[in-house]
């Protein structure tokens, strides 16, 4: 049977916007020593804005933006949403087919029979396309058409208001290590980690690499220690399922992520992780 105090703990959590799916997870939160975060949508707002447009060759800014908008017309990724918002015009659907979203890379699509690519450096490298390395720090979306480089867009995301204090609060609670896993470029990941005081960062990861990294981190901790993974669930449902306690952002997060998670943060605030641990500690004192 479940000690009554746990119901109190789960209730206290829910009043704080934290949905805990079982008393075992509340109990596990007591022993958390390592907290692993996804970046986009978890520590950052996941609300990207196109900050600059860099066409190459004879292309105009408008041509580059239009091609990017066509490629990103059907993606749910926050990057795609920012490109559609920046384009702010109708996106032609005629002559578009063979849509293929490559996780951790970007989009491949056929436009009037020509292959259009929109995504990161890895996507360009796979296709053997020479691209310009931008000077600014930011998420880059490179665009190519029919094997030819068309230019790139710089997209910026902002850290959440409470992200730095969330990391600080975890340290106060005796969390030994904070880690950030991201599919984004190394320079972007390191800049965010430095800004927030995150101890360790692993960048340029594919969704399957994130599971592998989590397993490596798992092997480095003591058997009694628990590790939690916090994600928004766009591409990281397998990691949520793999962690001792998988925590999903409930607002921005996908339904699949909310389903796979053990704990759901309804307000999308990373500082609620520390609140959940505090509630778990209080509950243990009452129960035992
Ligand atoms: P994160 O770990 O930051 O949440 P994702 O795994 O969702 O990242 O994506 C990793 C990287 O893959 C992005 O930073 C971006 O470079 C690229 N990418 C993913 N989806 C898209 C898309 N729809 N358009 C362009 N680039 C994309
Ligand atoms: Mg993400």
TrEMBL record:
It is found in: Cell membrane. It comes from the Bacteria. Coiled coil: none annotated. Belongs to the cation transport ATPase (P-type) (TC 3.A.3) family. Type IB subfamily. This is Cadmium-translocating P-type ATPase. It comes from Paenibacillus amylolyticus. The gene is cadA.
């Amino acid at each position: 049977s479940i000690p009554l105090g746990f119901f109190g703990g789960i209730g206290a959590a829910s009043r704080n916007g934290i949905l805990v799916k079982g008393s075992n997870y509340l109990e596990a939160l007591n022993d958390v020593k390592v907290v692993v975060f996804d970046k986009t949508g978890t520590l950052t707002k996941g609300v990207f804005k196109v900050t600059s447009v860099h066409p190459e060759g004879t292309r105009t800014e408008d041509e580059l933006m239009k091609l990017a908008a066509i490629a990103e017309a059907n993606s749910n990724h926050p990057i795609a949403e920012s490109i559609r918002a920046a384009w702010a015009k109708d996106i032609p659907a005629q002559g578009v087919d063979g849509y293929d979203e490559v996780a951790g890379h970007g989009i491949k699509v056929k436009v009037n029979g020509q292959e259009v690519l929109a995504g990161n450096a890895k996507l360009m490298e796979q296709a053997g396309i020479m691209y310009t390395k931008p000077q600014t720090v930011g998420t880059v979306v490179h665009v190519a058409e029919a094997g030819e480089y068309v230019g790139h867009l710089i997209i910026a995301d902002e850290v959440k208001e409470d992200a730095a204090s969330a990391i600080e609060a975890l340290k106060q609670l005796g969390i030994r290590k904070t880690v950030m896993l991201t599919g984004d470029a190394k320079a972007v990941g390191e800049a965010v980690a430095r800004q927030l005081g995150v101890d360790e960062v692993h960048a340029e990861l594919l969704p399957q690499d994130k599971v592998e990294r989590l397993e490596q981190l798992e092997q480095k901790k003591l058997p009694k220690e628990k590790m939690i993974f916090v994600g928004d669930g766009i591409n990281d449902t397998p990691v949520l399922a793999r962690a001792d306690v998988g925590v999903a952002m409930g607002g921005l997060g996908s339904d699949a992520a909310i389903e796979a998670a053990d704990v759901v943060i309804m307000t999308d605030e990373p500082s609620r992780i520390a609140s959940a641990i505090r509630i778990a500690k209080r509950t243990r004192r009452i129960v035992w």
